[in-house]
Amino acid sequence: MLNFAAEQKNTIMKYPIGMQSFDQIREEGFVYVDKTALVYDLVTTGKIYFLSRPRRFGKSLLLSTLENYFLGRKDLFRGLAIDSLEKEWAEYPVFHLDFNAINFTQPYALDETLQGFIDDAEKKYGIKSSITQFGLRFNQILETAHEKSGRRAVVLIDEYDKPLLDVMNSDIPSPVVAGEVKTLEDYNRNILKGFYSVFKLADKHLKFVLLTGVTKFSQVSVFSGFNQPDDISYDGRYDALCGITKDELLSVFKDSIKELGEANGMTVDETIAMLKRKYDGYHFSRKMNDIFNPFSILKCFKNKAFDNYWFSTGTPTYLVRLLSDNHENVNELAGRDYPPAEFVDYKATKQRPLPMLYQSGYLTIKGYNARRNTYLLDFPNEEVRSGMTSVLAADYFGDESRPSTWLYDVSDSLEAGDLEKFKLQLTAFLSHISYRFQRKDDAMECERHFQYTFYLIMLLLGKYNTYIEKETSQGRIDCILECPDYVYIFEFKLNSTAAVALKQIEEKGYASPYAADARKIYKVGISFSSETGTVNDFDYLPRE
What we know:
Elements: E1 2-3, H1 22-27, E2 32-33, H2 36-45, E3 48-52, H3 59-70, E4 94-98, H4 109-124, H5 134-149, E5 153-158, H6 162-165, E6 173-178, E7 181-183, H7 184-196, H8 198-201, E8 206-213, E9 230-231, H9 246-252, H10 254-263, H11 268-279, H12 294-303, H13 309-312, H14 317-326, E10 336-338, H15 354-359, E11 364-369, E12 374-378, H16 382-397, H17 404-416, H18 419-432, H19 443-461, E13 465-472, E14 475-482, E15 486-494, H20 498-508, E16 520-528, E17 535-541
Parallel strand pairs: 3-8, 3-9, 4-5, 5-8, 15-16
Antiparallel strand pairs: 1-2, 6-7, 10-12, 11-12, 13-14, 14-15, 16-17
Helix pairs in contact: 4-5, 5-7, 10-11, 16-19, 17-18
């Protein structure tokens, strides 16, 4: 349902891009996708919650909505679902702490942020305290607010994990070295543990608590000081609490879809299909409810162009650092089945980057196997796949190793079925990139290097269906690339021959699923050399 402020008369849709203030959105007539029925359910069925969602997914707007609701600002909710549900509209003391805009790589940045938050709250309630510990001081504030207002307090914390994400695995030294506290990450974690312990101490003074963030830290980390919050991150009832559902897209943005299509020479159905391919595909529970990225959707409608908006707002440097530290390749993580314990619960480490990839929104649930209780994880959509590939390729190859003209030339060769030219292009490319593995006698590492290189090349092409290590009843196919007129089935070997690779394709029947396909099928065998770091044999069937 589309809602504007009552005084809004202009029919031009105003998109609240980057806006996190619910009251400003409502007062100034910006489009608002009504989430208030879910908000009402949340506040009337529980007390202390935690919600994990990717960045720029509407967490800050959700907290602003809750803040205005608990402040009793009924006028802002006129015409929304909650308007007919809430009868009391009472005003509660609200404490809203936002870590978004702070750079926590600076020593004592966390201390200063909490100090300012506590000082302001103490001043508001006339408290003069000699206590130094943040958690104990905040407890005193909550108790005083309860006594003076006659109502329990509401605490909303936005991006609660940013003080840790900013310094994760960075080895920045702690400003104070004591015992096991040696890095700024350790220092910030200890500060947060002490602060968050207030939620157990002040339980009787609390009406409602919501912490949002990208990651869920385990019990032994920052949540150990108080009773575990109700984690609704993977609760199907709240899948749509942040983000945009397809029904919301089709109803709220009906005119926007039409205008976007007209600007790009597309029908309404084609426009919806492109929006789904680019920005849909997030799933936050086994219910598999499709959620669109709200930031990208709004930017796309405003600019009337299908660009990678969400990914371009920030390079996931901490993810690249995690993958690099672990020597992990995305193709070995994406498109795999995992039990929930492998990715739902933090902590991501140098040995386990998967939880961070999932919780940050770079991988999402794509399927659920009830019998095994496992989840298929893969890239949510084309925007994330292409953006992540570009970042990883830049780190892996170096920017100068993959000029756009080379990619265009490769695309032309594959679209034309010219494998002789593709062979020369691939060989030349591999000859000019940095060969990273010093232990050339390590066959497994050499093979991983070539497979990952080929994987990144195929994904950088962007516009084709690419399947890496696709499982069949007869084995696992190294790579399948589907072009408009051709299908390429690749098998790789190390220090061998193309003939051996082609024999495996034939004997395993890798081409069988395409027997009725109208496109021409090419079986391609490629052998890589661990000595030269490039192709040493290349052949394909059928030959002209």
